[in-house]
Amino acid sequence: MADDAASQVEKAVTFALIAEAQPFRQFWQVAENGGRIVCVVHSMLLPVPPIYAGADGTPGLILPDSFAVTDAPEGTVEALVEAAQAVQREAGARIFLSSFVAGPDWRAAFDAKSYEPLTLYFSRSDLGDAGRPSDVRPANEADVPGIVARSAEIRSVLFGIDPFWAIHPEADARFDAWTRRSLTLPDRDMLVMVDPEGLEGYVIAQPASRLHFPPAHNITGTGVIDDFYHPDLADPNALANAGVGSMALLRAAEAAFAERGTGAAFVVCPAG
């Protein structure tokens, strides 16, 4: 938690309610009982990453700082989930997503609305104890075409798992541009594994953002691994070659975090 958590929440809510120029639309809704607020649900319209088609428009996302007090009337959470969907639908959303910490309370409400797992965040806080494997090195501009080619492979795997990840027709060019820009950013480590035949795999270890954590939380020292692929992972149902290559890339990313003083990280992984 941030030392000034209450102040950070107040700032975030105030900005959402009154700021004229906002990067995305968000909504705060509350339920009252007996003259006090007993439940809050926070949602937003989630920007579609540029490598995905987004044919169904901007999804609505219910965020994990939604909360109900223990003595809220029965059905309050379910009513707020319905209200959040209604305001998102009015804003144009046709797909509804939720993000919540594992546990039974809110999950029951989402299960009742037929939500299904799409993405999981796996976290770890003992990073870098094994050091960086010798066959993994920092990426450079010459590696970009190989990274883009491997990215196309993982996009195909993801689309096979769930059609939610429909691929944008200009995905390669867009990912190429993003990769080249990322190489210039000092807050992340872009790592590759290369053999005589070309680029085997890549991983990007970058800092967590406010899209990952609610405003009450201190995200300093927390990293995220989202862009990560090695052919060991090509079959969603089996890890090839005992995962030697993919595990080396993951260890390298953890070591990079540790070298920066990052104490915890999570990997974004399709639930399928």
**Considering DSSP H and I runs of 4 or more, what fraction of the residues is helical?**
25-40%
CATH superfamily of the largest domain: Gcn5-related N-acetyltransferase (GNAT)
Strand content: 15-25%
**CATH fold title of the largest domain:** Aminopeptidase
Give me the Rg, rounded.
20 Å
| Arithmetic mean of pLDDT | 92
The overall number of domains is: 2
Oligomer: single chain
Q: Write the H/E string, N to C.
A: HEEEEHEHEEHHEEEHE
Would you write up a description of this structure?
It is a single chain. Helix content is 31%, strand content 25%. The protein has 272 residues and is α+β, with helices and mostly antiparallel strands. It has 2 domains: 5-116, Gcn5-related N-acetyltransferase (GNAT) (Aminopeptidase, 3-Layer(aba) Sandwich); 123-270, 3-Layer(aba) Sandwich (Aminopeptidase), CATH 3.40.630.30. The strands form 2 sheets. Strands 6-11-10-9-8-7 form a 6-stranded mixed beta sheet, sandwiched between helices. Helix 6 (244-259) links the parallel strand 10 (222-229) and strand 11. Helix 4 packs across helix 5. It is globular and about 70 Å long. The mean pLDDT is 92.
